[in-house]
Design goal:
By secondary structure, the chain is an alpha+beta fold. It is built from 13 helices and 39 strands.
């Protein structure tokens, strides 16, 4: 066992999230930061402009189709907490659709004295009569679940038979109008060490939750357990999944008699069932008979045959050194696939038929922008909605049916002047010789100036080009350069781009980001003193390492909702679920490599650090705010220039509404611009 991490931590008291002393410390530091960066007309103007981007009615109201209706959640200046609403496709095609308001969250919050934040809704299919609505207090991951009558536009009270769950990190989904699968906090032992449901149960309307019939029970060390029902006509069936760690899981079909039948695929593979088809996406090499399928391969098999022992597999996608599979989604009869070729998206359609699977490009989609699938109808039709945008190209909502022309349904407005900007892709060389792609958005031929480098590098999340009005008007329009690094740990080149940076390989993430920083200077795009870096969550850990290991490369750093104390991360909130990513600090062998980079354990009072803004949220119940608080306190104690801001609500996203989002964004951009010498 590693040594007790609390024995020499003088700032442990700051982990008391809502403790009086801790919050007094937060407010004192908030006041200092606010006074330093926000008490100007220039800040107020920037904040107003950013909020106008978030609030404008000209934004695309993104929708999800459920039967005859398109559902949307909407916030603007008049509806701060938001509206859940729906309309028809004919109305949606118009410039000013007639929306049916289902839930006014502002009115609900005022009536109940709660700062409700919308967390989503599950509509009962196919009759559209009921929904399960999730509401969060202040933006936390833990939610309250309530049943909603869509015909009468009102909540169904528990005393009237409505499904209701108190605040918890719950998992719930419809089986039929009177039954759900549920996992939630029902008392001691109900949750995993990561704080998610450990059991899944079948709960019938009108019965106490305590009488719900358990259908699966996992171990306390698992990340989570869940169950769901497939309502596809002719293929009705239930499934259970046991998430052993963040990347390994077991999936079972649950029979009517409660019998569990394992879907025997590698635990680190992603398996899904649609109609008669089983899809398997590998994360590691998988040997089947005499053939080995590399990581990142997508395979198809007939589900019934596979469960009976057949291993006849069809390769639907095979990776190469430049190309990976980013997304795949079923419509009723076709499989839409989004691939990445050196971080450029391409869309294809795979279709099963008597002669095998056909492969065609999805026509009518620009290859000059990043495109992803937003919504499909996997039960009734081959309809799809796509979103397409680039760093300087506002979003376009595309709609179509496979085999028919794609139409431009909605176009977002331009929020900043990009007429003098260009987007270029470059490659930096990391310490081990790996080429690391990154995108640069700037005016061609501009002199070195303030540059913002953004990165994440974890959990196989790909950083794809996308339009940000707030970033554009806050940074690019003022003459700044914006850079996004596609470092390892992400999924830009498939699972291996991620897995080689797990645990003992974590140093590659940091070396990649540092290599991009050096390359920007070598190319004359910026100088070290004018280069800022920004990242949040896992990207906040990246920023902490940049601060403590590579301080000479940066002029300023913004570290948001971060992981920083890697000695205790697994003991705080959902941290235990990430040990497959970072390692177990209680294992001496794994702590040996974690300890070499953990920012909180590697600060140096004698080394020069660039100014840093550390920001988090009190209501973040995913990454504990203690990480940010303790790091700021330690840096301040050592004499470093550290600024701190904590939103008292806002969850892991750091903001609960558009006003808070605008303030948070304006604060970060103002800090960076002023610190990097941007001037007025």
């Amino acid at each position: 066992m590693a040594s007790d991490p609390t024995a020499t931590d003088p700032h442990l008291w700051l982990e008391d999230v809502t403790g009086e002393s801790a919050l007094a410390w937060v407010r004192e530091h908030n006041d200092r930061t606010i006074a330093e960066f926000t008490d100007t007309d220039r800040f107020a103007d920037l904040e107003d402009r950013i909020r106008a981007v978030f609030d404008t009615d000209a934004r695309i109201p993104y929708v999800r189709r459920r039967g005859a209706y398109l559902y949307n959640f909407w916030r603007d200046s008049l509806h701060v907490r938001g509206l859940w609403r729906r309309t028809t496709m004919d109305e949606y095609r118009t410039d000013a659709p007639d929306w049916e308001i289902l839930v006014d969250l502002d009115a609900l919050a005022e009536a109940e004295g709660e700062n409700w934040v919308w967390s989503g809704a599950q509509v009962l299919r196919p009759d559209q009569s009921r929904a399960l609505i999730s509401l969060s207090r202040g933006g936390a991951d833990a939610v309250v679940v309530r049943e909603f009558d869509l015909l009468r536009a009102e909540f169904v009270l528990p005393e009237d038979g409505g499904f209701h769950l108190p605040e918890a990190k719950s998992d719930i989904g419809w089986i039929d109008a009177d039954t759900v699968y549920v996992g939630t906090d029902t008392g001691p032992g109900a949750l995993t060490d990561s704080g998610y449901p450990r059991t899944a149960a079948r709960w019938r309307r009108g019965t106490p939750l305590t009488e719900a019939v358990t259908v699966f029970e996992g171990d306390h060390s698992d990340v989570a357990v869940s169950a769901w029902y497939d309502r596809t006509p002719g293929f009705e069936r239930s499934f259970v999944e046991r998430s052993i760690d963040f990347y390994a899981s077991q999936r079972f079909e649950l029979g009517p008699d409660g019998e569990l039948t394992l879907i025997d695929v590698p635990q680190d593979a992603r398996a899904s069932v649609h109609r008669e088809w089983l899809l398997i996406r590998t994360r590691g090499a998988w040997a089947v008979g005499d053939h080995e399928y590399p990581a990142g391969t997508l395979l198809a098999a007939r589900y019934a045959d596979y469960q009976e022992g057949s291993r006849e597999l069809t390769v639907l996608f095979a990776p190469d050194p430049h190309t990976s599979l980013e997304q795949y989604v079923w419509t009723r009869n076709h499989l839409l696939m989004v691939t990445l070729s050196d971080v450029q998206t391409r869309l294809r359609v795979r279709t099963p038929g008597p002669a095998g699977w056909t492969d065609e490009p999805l026509a009518g989609v620009s290859e000059l922008a990043a495109t992803d699938v937003l919504d499909v109808d996997p039960v009734e039709s081959d309809e799809f909605f796509l979103n397409s945008s680039g760093y300087t190209t506002p979003a376009t909502l595309l709609h179509g049916y496979v085999g028919e022309p794609v139409e431009e349904l909605k176009q977002a407005p331009t929020f900043f002047d990009s007429s003098n900007l260009s987007v270029a892709q470059h490659f930096a060389v990391s310490d081990d010789g790996t080429r690391i792609p990154y995108f640069v958005v700037r005016e061609p031929g501009a002199a070195p100036g303030p540059t913002l480098l953004y990165g994440y590098g974890g959990f196989e999340n790909s950083m794809l080009p996308g339009y940000s009005g707030a970033m554009g008007l806050s940074w690019l329009e003022r003459g700044g350069t914006y850079v996004v690094a596609n470092i390892r740990g992400g999924g830009e080149y498939g699972p291996q781009w991620h897995t080689q940076a797990l645990k003992a390989g974590r140093h590659k993430v940091f070396e990649d980001f540092a290599a991009v920083a050096r390359d920007l200077v070598d190319r004359g795009i910026t100088t070290a003193s004018q280069l800022g870096a920004q990242g949040g969550s896992n990207g906040g850990l990246l920023m902490g390492v940049m601060l403590t290991r590579y301080p000479e490369l940066f002029g300023a750093i913004v570290c948001q909702v971060p992981l920083l104390d890697m000695r205790r991360y697994h003991l705080l909130l959902a941290g235990a679920s990430w040990m497959a990513e970072y390692g177990d600090p209680d294992d001496p062998d794994e702590w040996a490599f974690i300890s070499r980079y953990s920012p909180y354990q590697n600060t140096d009072p004698d080394r020069a650090y660039p100014p840093v803004l550390i920001a988090t949220s009190t209501r973040d119940d995913r990454v504990h705010p203690g990480h940010a608080r303790k790091m700021a306190a330690l840096l301040e104690e050592q004499g470093h220039r550290a600024w701190y801001y904590e939103n008292i609500e806002g969850g892991h996203g750091g903001a609960a509404d558009n006003k808070q989002m605008a303030f948070k964004s304006a604060l970060a951009y103002t800090f960076l611009w002023d610190t990097l010498g941007g001037g007025d």
